[in-house]
């Protein structure tokens, strides 16, 4: 038996045993296989095929879907520089060039000695401490030339990652402003005892816990703002087949560029998040839960597993929670593997089932036919933390916070041209100006709220408010000062959407690529007024025909920046004196018709909570 076969024979049996030889855990089995072997060789695929009884093509198809999986050798050190626009403007490209030059490797390729590969990836959730990179899926933030040189010496010396200085991997929380959520520190068990006092486990509808959410007017914190009580009630009332269970899923796949507040919540308030998931199980009568953690947050896995183990030992998770017979609920953590589209709730469920993360047709919706066709609630990390506070303090208390249509507080991931990047918690209704002042922004010309799929506003609109009735947000708040070229910001976002399209539907697969090419053509000085007409047509096609919110949102940053920073585009035209025949109102008409909203941010409501 050659070396690869021997490695597979020793590494794979415990991995398959740990995941109960369950085909629905295929993504996790592939992830652990790669961690053990540095890649997924053909021998491993064959071993997994025999162990799980799956077709060879199914395993290869799943392995080929996720960008963090490699079925060809990619080196013992796999270095991925974050290509988020904020970090690009901070000089990440020059740092990547420095590392490549020092280690004699070309971007996108494997070194001749097979030691390492270097490439870019999308935002890795470190926008407050960038530039940053991943090495074998572990984050290294706050890159400088000196830190790059240190990494080069470690790689050149073939030092195992376990022996690298711990300071290289230190991630800061950067909490800049706290309110009721980030300040909350309930004693272990307090939230669940309060929930138990309000309602017996899985009681009949109307369920008092769900009614508290209704009183609180809690809306999902992932962007779209769907009423949480309505979602939970729909799941609780869905028919349940014999032998089936209701499922609770926490969506911690915050892949929207510029967002990192869920990372901080899971670091500082993991118990509150798990309390919220258990409150949901209490209200729904669910017995099984999942935390779907984005692959870029691999470094959080061990600490989160330890928190779950501690909760089980304390009787806050597992069988007979708080000593109540029948109060059974446990949580399993699944890690993503580099697929932005898995932030969409049905694509996330597909991934949980061990499949490619392709969004499902809807209806049916997850609340009736979710994980393994069982009634499933999928909510954002922040949403579950808020649900825990409502169970503890009551819906009336929560409803008294925030604005008229947006109760509670909102966590904002502030990055870009500010003195104090980090996480800020404000009551809903805070103005953009107030956030900029708190973060120390100077001479800001634009803010991208909610990430690329959100809304870009100019200085004249900084009096607008972060709220569902004005500017909804999944949490990203990216600031650009007057020195920044907003065309290049939008161009970076079009590259992001083209890269992250799952390829399932032709309008999105082709449309995002064509949009990227149009922006590149403009960047090269070869644009014409007719390109604006093509962008208008592209937006209409993507809005009407894309399978999911990724395609619906792909033109958003281009439309917003054309509307507010038109000179940045006109400078790129080969004949700028010719007025483009571009009608923004007509371009946005499909979004306005579908959402009933009348602003340039109408698109965010289409994109939906699960895609953030």
Concise summary:
The protein has helices at 3-18, 26-37, 42-52, 56-65, 85-89, 92-103, 145-156, 190-198, 208-216, 228-237, 261-268, 270-284, 301-313, 345-352, 381-393, 395-399, 432-439, 486-500, 506-523, 529-545, 549-553, 556-564, 566-570, 584-595, 602-607, and strands spanning 77-82, 116-121, 133-135, 138-140, 175-177, 247-252, 288-293, 330-335, 376-380, 409-416, 422-427, 444-449, 455-458, 476-481. It is an alpha/beta fold and 612 residues long. It folds into 4 domains: 3-65; 77-172, Glutaredoxin; 176-399, Rossmann fold; 409-611, Up-down Bundle (de novo design (two linked rop proteins)).
Per-chain topology:
Layout: H1 3-18, H2 26-37, H3 42-52, H4 56-65, E1 77-82, H5 85-89, H6 92-103, E2 116-121, E3 133-135, E4 138-140, H7 145-156, E5 175-177, H8 190-198, H9 208-216, H10 228-237, E6 247-252, H11 261-268, H12 270-284, E7 288-293, H13 301-313, E8 330-335, H14 345-352, E9 376-380, H15 381-393, H16 395-399, E10 409-416, E11 422-427, H17 432-439, E12 444-449, E13 455-458, E14 476-481, H18 486-500, H19 506-523, H20 529-545, H21 549-553, H22 556-564, H23 566-570, H24 584-595, H25 602-607
Parallel strand pairs: 1-2, 5-11, 6-7, 6-9, 7-8, 10-14
Antiparallel strand pairs: 1-3, 3-4, 10-11, 12-13, 12-14
């Amino acid at each position: 038996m050659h070396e690869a076969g021997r490695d597979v024979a020793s590494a794979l049996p415990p991995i398959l045993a740990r995941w109960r030889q369950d085909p629905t855990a295929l993504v996790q089995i592939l992830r652990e296989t790669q961690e053990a072997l540095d890649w997924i060789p053909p021998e491993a695929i064959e071993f997994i095929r025999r162990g799980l009884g799956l077709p060879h093509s199914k395993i290869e198809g799943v392995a080929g879907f996720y960008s963090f999986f490699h079925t060809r050798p990619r080196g013992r050190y796999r270095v991925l520089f974050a290509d988020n626009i904020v970090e690009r403007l901070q000089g990440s490209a020059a740092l990547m060039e420095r590392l490549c030059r020092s280690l004699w490797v070309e971007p996108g390729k494997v070194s001749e000695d097979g030691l390492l590969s270097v490439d870019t990836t999308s935002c890795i959730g470190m926008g407050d401490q960038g530039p940053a990179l991943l090495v074998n899926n572990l984050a290294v933030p706050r890159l400088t030339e000196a830190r790059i040189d240190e990494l080069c010496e470690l790689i050149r010396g073939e030092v195992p990652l376990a022996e690298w200085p711990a300071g290289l991997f230190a991630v800061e929380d950067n909490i800049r402003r706290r309110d009721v959520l980030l300040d909350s520190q309930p004693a272990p068990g307090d939230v669940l005892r309060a929930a138990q006092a309000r309602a017996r486990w899985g009681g009949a509808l109307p369920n008092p816990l769900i009614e508290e959410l209704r009183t609180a007017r809690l809306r999902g914190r992932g962007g779209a703002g769907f009423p949480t009580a309505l979602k939970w009630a729909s799941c609780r009332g869905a028919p349940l087949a014999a032998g089936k269970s209701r499922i609770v899923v926490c969506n911690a796949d915050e892949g929207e560029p510029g967002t990192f507040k869920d990372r901080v919540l899971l670091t500082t308030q993991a118990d509150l998040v798990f309390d919220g998931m258990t409150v949901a199980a209490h209200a729904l009568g669910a017995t099984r839960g999942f935390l779907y953690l984005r692959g870029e947050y691999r470094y959080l896995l061990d600490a989160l597993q330890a928190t779950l183990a501690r909760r089980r030992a304390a009787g806050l998770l597992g069988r007979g929670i708080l000593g109540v017979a029948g109060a059974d609920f446990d949580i399993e953590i699944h890690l993503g593997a580099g697929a932005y589209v898995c932030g969409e709730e049905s694509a996330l469920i597909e991934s949980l089932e061990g499949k490619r993360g392709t969004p499902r047709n809807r209806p049916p919706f997850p609340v009736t036919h979710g994980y393994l066709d069982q009634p499933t609630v999928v909510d954002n990390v922040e949403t579950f933390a808020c649900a825990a506070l409502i169970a503890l303090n009551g819906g009336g208390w929560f409803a008294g916070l925030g604005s008229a249509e947006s109760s509670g507080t909102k966590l904002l991931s502030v990055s870009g041209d500010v003195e104090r990047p980090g996480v800020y918690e404000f009551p809903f209704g805070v103005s953009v100006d107030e956030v900029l002042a708190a973060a120390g922004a100077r001479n800001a010309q634009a803010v991208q709220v909610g990430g690329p799929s959100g809304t870009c506003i100019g200085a004249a609109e900084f009096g607008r408010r972060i709220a569902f009735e004005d500017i909804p947000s999944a949490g990203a708040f990216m600031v650009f000062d007057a020195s920044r070229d907003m065309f290049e910001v939008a161009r970076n976002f079009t590259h992001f959407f083209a890269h992250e399209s799952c390829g399932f539907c032709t309008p999105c697969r082709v449309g995002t690529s064509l949009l990227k090419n149009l922006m590149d053509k403009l960047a090269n000085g070869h644009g014409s007024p007719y390109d604006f007409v093509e962008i208008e047509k592209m937006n209409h096609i993507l809005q009407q025909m894309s399978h999911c919110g990724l395609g619906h949102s792909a033109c958003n940053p281009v439309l917003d920046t054309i509307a507010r920073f038109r000179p940045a585009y006109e400078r790129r035209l080969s004949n700028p004196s010719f007025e483009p025949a571009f009608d923004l109102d007509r371009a946005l008409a499909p979004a306005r018709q579908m959402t009933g909203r009348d602003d340039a941010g109408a698109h965010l409501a289409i994109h939906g909570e699960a895609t953030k």
